[in-house]
Amino acid sequence: MLKNYISHTFLKLKDEYDKEVDPEEKKRIIYEDDKLACFNTGLFTSTYEPIYALFYINSVPGKQKWKFSDFKTEYQLTLIGVPVLPHRANYFTNPSDLVFDTNREIIPQWHHIINNPENFNRIPEQVRLGSNYQTVIEGAIKLAQKKIEANYRLAVPQYYKGKIQLLIPLCLIDRNRADLALVVTKSEEPKCYLGHTCLPLDWAYNNARLIARPDSDWLQP
Q: Domain check: are 68 and 101 in the same one?
């Protein structure tokens, strides 16, 4: 899980780095000089200090330019003379995208959720073997929307292919326990949310963790 998180975080920062034209601003995204390089992992120590990944020039001929050294705090990087401390990856520009708009309905992509064998098999067997599985899912979506009206934190943001999406808990068997996460994207024409697919909870957690540790009981590692 950690390796996956670090890899995705670096790819996002690399994308920001490549798009930035100002050399000084580039250093605030990924810092590098003729000896070392570092980036902000987005993780924190137990005392809430940002954690950075530190690399040194690789001395082995024919290998990649940089070799991983260690994870460091701000204090430790300052001690070794790093003049610029890179910022965290920026996953969103509009904070309102992180909050579910309860005035919009969810329109599921039923063909993908039900007719795709791989996705259909993610549905709990108890529901899948019944004849009214679509009705059960529709009911779970309506229940999720009511719960989100009472607690907006239940809709958890994730970053996927350059866009912010929201993860909605689907309680298909027990109304108090989520079985899957419905991935929804805000649409402006028409004003609604498009329900793309259902993810296993561990997949959903990994995606959400790129932005921040989910502050919701239903989505935990």
A: no
Tell me, yes or no, whether 183 lies in a domain.
yes
Asked if the structure places residue 221 within a domain, the reply is no
Enclosing H/E stretch for 197: strand 191-199
Same domain, 167 and 108: yes
More confident residue, 95 or 183: 183
Instruction: Tell me what percent of the chain is helix, strand and coil, each rounded to the nearest 5.
Output: 35, 25, 40
Question: Number of folded domains in the chain?
Answer: 2
Beta bridge partners of 54: 38, 70
Residue 179 is predicted with a pLDDT of 97
Token pair recorded at residue 19: 């798009």
For residue 7, give its domain range.
2-79
What value does the mean pLDDT take over residues 133-147?
96
Distances (CA, A) of 193 to 29, 103, 182: 32, 10, 11
CA distance 20 to 134: 46
Q: Where are the alpha helices (DSSP H) in 80-150?
A: 110, 117-120, 125-128, 133-150
- In the DSSP assignment, the letter for residue 192 is E
Q: Looking at the chain, how many residues does it have? A: 221
Mean pLDDT over 96-112 rounds to: 92
